[in-house]
Amino acid sequence: MPETSHNPLPLAGIKVLDLTLARAGPTAVRHLADWGADIIRVEPPGDGDGLAGARNGYDSANLHRNKRGIALNLKDNEARAAFLKLVETADVLVENMRVQVKHRLKVAPEDLRAINPRLVYASISGFGQTGPYATRGGVDQIAQGMGGLMSITGLPGQGPVRVGIPICDLTAGNLLALGIMMALFERVKTGRGKHVTTSLLESMVFMLDFQASRYLMAGEVAGQAGNDHPVNTPMGVFPASDKLINIAASSAKLWTNFCKAAGREDWLERPEWKTPKQRTADRPALNAAIAEVTRQHSAEWWIATLEEAGIPCGPVNDIAQVFADPQVAHLRMALPMGDTHVVDSAINIEGHETSVRRLPPELGQHSDEILLEAGISREAIAALRARNAVQ
Question: What UniProt keywords apply to this chain's record, in alphabetical order (predicted)?
Answer without folding.
Answer: Transferase
